[in-house]
Amino acid sequence: MIPYFEQPSLKVGPLTVHAFGALVALAVVAGYLLAVRRARAKGLDAAVMESLLAWVLGVGFICAHLFAVLVYFPKELRAHPWMILRFWENLSS
Fold first, then answer.
1. What contacts 51, CB < 8 A, 6 or more positions away?
2. Which residues, including other chains, have CB under 8 Å from residue 32's CB and lie 6 or more apart?
3. Is the pLDDT of residue 40 over 90?
């Protein structure tokens, strides 16, 4: 069994940066840059790739939030239906 350990977080003013969020942000930026570089290397239009990536990331994060709320927190959603609009909370990987 892998033991649980508290993840580090960094307080920046009113914002708290968690280790998981920082790693996700780093992975998104790295993937975005690599995909655009690969598109240019293959002779594809980089602007089209950037547009596609923006849509994929936006829809992906929205669907991950909706999945988490609907599957993991259905009782809380019934009690507080507006929680479905709080996209900064409850993200499923």
1. none
2. 50, 53, 57
3. yes
